[in-house]
Amino acid sequence: MSIIYNHQARKAGETVLNRIKALKIGQKMQDLPEELWHDSFRYYVKEDPNRKGGPNLRMIRLDPNQPSLTVTGYIYNKFVHPFYDRFITPREAARLQGFPDDLEFKGSLTSVQRQVGDAVPVELGEAIFRQLLQFAKRQVPHQIQFPALSLFSGAGGLEVANRNVCTADNSHFKTIACIEIEKDRCDTLKGYFGESFPIFEQDIQDISANTLLSACNIAPSDISLVYGGPPCQSFSQAGKQKGQHDPRGELIFEFLRIVKEISPPLFMMENVSNLKGIDKGRLLNAILEEMDTIGYHITYGVLNSAQYGNAQKRQRLIFLGSKKMYANSVVLPEPTHFEYLDLFGKPRFKTVLQAFIGLSEETD
Question: Per residue of the chain (364 residues), what is the pLDDT tens digit?
C-alpha cells in the first residue's frame, strides 16, 4: 500500500464539530440553525446596519457532484468533506489542485497549506503548456527540446503540468532551473523532482538573468520560454488589494525584468483574476505597457480551471507573450470541459467526488 502524504485534517472543537455535523451537502454557515452561528457571522447578518456583503466565514460542505470552490491556504477550517464530519485535508486540497499523490509537501502544516493554496491547478497548466508548445513547434518544427526557465516556482504546480505535456514526437519544454525564495517550497520541489533540474533558493530581486543562466551552463539565446506566477497576495481579496503599494506587487516587474534580460521567444505569467481591477485597471495597463515595451505581443484573459479538467472553479489571469518577430500571437487555450452535457458529448466538469476517489478517511 503506497503512502499518502499530507493527509491529516485540522482538528475541530466541540462547537465547530456540531456545526460540521449539522451541515448538509452544499450548505454554508447561514444554513445552520442560528444557535450554531459564529458570533461574528451573527453580527454581520443581524446587527451591523452598514454591512456590505457577508463576513469571511465560508464554511461549506462540499458538493461531491460539483467542482469545489477556489482552494486557498485558508480553506482548512472552511471546506467540510462531502461525507466525513471533518474539514478536508491538505492532500484532498492537493487532489482538487491536480497534484499527484506521490508529491509530498514539506514543512509545517501552515506552510503545507499555503503551498497547496498558492499553486496553479495542474490541469490548467497543462492546457497552457500544450498551447505554448504547439506555437513553439510551428516556429521551429524540427526542434524536440525547448529549454524553459521557471520563476516563483512555489510547490511545483506548473512544473508538474509541464512534465506531463509533450507531442507525439516527444517534443517538450525542458525546465532547466527553478527559482523560489521559500525553503519549504524548495524542499518540496527537490523531494519530488530530485536532480531533474537545479533549484535555486534565492530572491529573484538579488539575481540577474546572466548570473542565473551561467550557473546552469546555458546561454540566454537557448531559452525558449520563461514562465511563473509572481506572488499574488498583493492583488487578492485576502491581501486587501494593496497592489503596487505592497513590495510583493513589485515582483511582477521583477519577472518582466528577467524576461527582458533573456528575451525568450515566449513567456507565460499568471496571477489572480482580480489584478485586473486594481487601481481602476491602471496596474494592468502598466503591466501590458511594459510587456509591449520589451518586445512582445500579448494575449491575456481570465481562465476557469474547471473548464480544463480541474475539479475546482478557480479563476486565474493568464498572460501569454510571444516575440513581435512572429507574425501571429500565441492564443489562450479553448475550454475542454463544460458544466452541462451537450449534443457533442464534450466532457463535463470534474467533480469533488472524482478528485477524492481512492482516498481513505484520513491518516493519523
Answer: 578 899 999 889 999 999 999 999 999 988 999 899 888 788 777 777 676 655 556 689 999 999 999 999 999 999 999 999 999 999 999 999 999 999 999 999 999 999 999 999 999 999 999 999 999 999 999 999 999 999 999 999 999 999 999 988 999 999 999 999 999 999 999 999 999 999 999 999 999 999 999 999 999 999 999 999 998 655 544 444 444 454 445 899 999 999 999 999 999 999 998 888 888 888 899 999 999 999 999 999 999 999 999 999 999 999 999 999 998 899 999 999 999 877 677 899 999 999 999 998 766 5
Total-model pTM: 0.91
> Is the CB of residue 218 less than 8 Å from the CB of residue 193?
no
Question: Which residues are CB-contacts of 72 (< 8 A; sequence separation ≥ 6)?
Answer: 117, 238
The CATH label, of 2.60.120.280, 2.40.10.10, 3.90.120.10, 1.10.8.60, for the domain at 14-118 is 3.90.120.10
Active-site residue 232, yes or no?
A: yes
Catalytic residue among 178, 186, 216, 232: 232
CATH code, 122-323: 3.40.50.150
Q: Write down the residue that cell numbers 458529448 correspond to.
A: 345
CA distance 132 to 129: 5
DSSP 8-state symbol, 301? E
